[in-house]
Design goal:
15 helices, alpha+beta, Nucleotidyltransferase, domain 5, 5-stranded antiparallel β-sheet, globular, 8-stranded mixed β-sheet
Length: 705
Amino acid sequence: MVTQSESRWAGVHGGAGMPVRSSGCADRAQRARGAGLQQGRGLLVRRKPPLAPGETTQTACARALLRGGVDELSGELLSPGVLAMRVGWCAELVSGITQALLAEHWNSADVAQLASGVDAGGQRLPSQAWMALRRLGWTAGPPQGVRVSDRIVRMAQEQAGRLLRSAQWRAELTAGVLTTWPADASKRTTEEWQQVRAALPDGRHLPSSVIRARTRQIAAYAQATRRLPADVFELEGAPRAARMLLLAACDRQQATLERSDTDPRQVLLRLQLPTRADPRAYADWTWVACPITLPAIVPTSAVLHLPTLCLQGQSVRAEVAFTHAVPQTRRSGHTVALGVDWGLNTLLSAGAARLHPDGRITTLGAGARFHAAGVLAKQHRLRRLSERLHAKTDQYQRLADQDAPHTELSGKHDVLRREIGHVSARRSHLNDALAWAAARWAVDQAIAARASVIYLEDLRSLEATGMGRTLNTRLSQTVRGQIADHIRHLAAQTGIAVVTVPAKNTSRHCPHCLCPLRHRKAPDRPTTPGWAWALCPNPGCSWQGDRDQGAWRRIAARGLAHQTKTVVDRGTGQMTIHNVVDTLEARAVIPPAAAMTSRADRSKTGPTRRRTTRPAPRRRGAPSPARPVGRAGQRPEGHAPTGRDRLPRAAHRHQGVTTISTPTRRRHRPRGAALGAGFHLHAHTTPPRWAPPMPDATTDMGSLS
């Protein structure tokens, strides 16, 4: 009798016993050798995907979950928990070797030699980290009596080499700050800022927040030890090695990856895993076959690479890297651009602008908004909850250290530590969902406007100060960097360039005449100081509007006027405009649109008709049923099921910062927004004005509360 699990595996292995290679794999291998394809890393693929004129490659990563495996020696089906245990044993061996390498070579001389790119004989080091470490003779082994293959040592050397290479930038930054240490560490003078920027590599364009953060770290060390550190290696200890398997450093003797001939989304990962925590011989290592279902975001023509395996609780997550062809972006020559401005509750404000052949810049539509007040309110609530949990945990730790060990305090301390982990995971997931949603919205706005470039203001050096304790904290918690990275990733798939522009005076100057604006609290309160509403004092202009709506106009106009000054960072490949040129900035204005005049005479000829104070009822957009259906009545409910007597409370559209969690007790039914019915119910967006409006099926539904 064949069980359901065995029948599921039979399609991959030909049965529950030893796996057999299908004739399709053999034919594919023969065709690959005949066509000169690469047969490495366990995947018969080309070295790179075929490119058409005007295309380039993009490497991305997709997450997949290993839901089980098969031990090829015994034919045993491995559950997710058993597979995670065996992967954890292998990851512990790799992290132990990595930690030994880091402890031995965590010094300035070794890191500088690795970062120089040449060995002691003057020969160039390989680009792979594990090969570079072997050229330098840096190696380590497993504990005494444990037998591992050379590929396990490769993964450890690859991870250690990446960490050591990344330390070089921090070493140069720390050295530059130490050589120009200011007289007052809390505040540098103008001359001291010039000195520290001159001492740092590419310090002219380095954000000030990075220098201040490193200065505060050194000042804290000096206050604790009463002296300055010698370098970053004394300031920071060796980093901790993560428990993961970098299979990209292996070959076919450790791991292979093959795509199915029938379904491109099905992938078979084969790798060697230990059968015990301390393998004593090579017989304690067996091949395990793990099927992987790729997500839909991976193109069928993409070239797959060996994944990185990470432990996540009692499961194993595979980070599958793939390379595919995307349209090539260009630095200049843009005529339609999308300007994006950052905000707090209104997270993004965006709009399109067009550059005409005569040099004029006009806007396309009135702009749009990504309003995420509900999500940010929940994030703020989780942050306060995390702070209270940390305060309780610290208090329990102090009480336990002062007195004799208490069982009750230890148990409560462990419970709070687990709860802190759960809250941190919720905050991380919420930030990730918010970043992807905002990035997807911004790229969709650019696609709808047929823009070839997205201009973002560079706020890397923004420091939340002077806005009050609550507002400063909320500003510092905004995931602007994560949103910008996601925008670059999504825009590259459609050939849209993403360029950062200087943020100076984008919200301060008028988009029509470049005069300094006067900011007020609201349009109906023109004398109350504030930040939401902007007024132009120039009598010839008199522009007024939302502060963020004026900012995206300035960003788009500045980017189009300075597009010839766009440079590409060689290290990251990101496009940016570093400086603002006065002659080009004078052209970065958007003339006001001509007023629409009506030729019909609209003069008042009689008394105004009296209007009733009672609003007219909404009319039905669809005919009512012939007879009442259930408790819902005759009014159609749109997308809601007709059997439901009322819509869920979480479907209410007007959700503000008072968003609360879904109540569990029936006695307490708070009115207003409620969580638990979907992420997008708490993130409201404005559709683009230049696109035809989508029909709204809920306009005739009346009140949803």
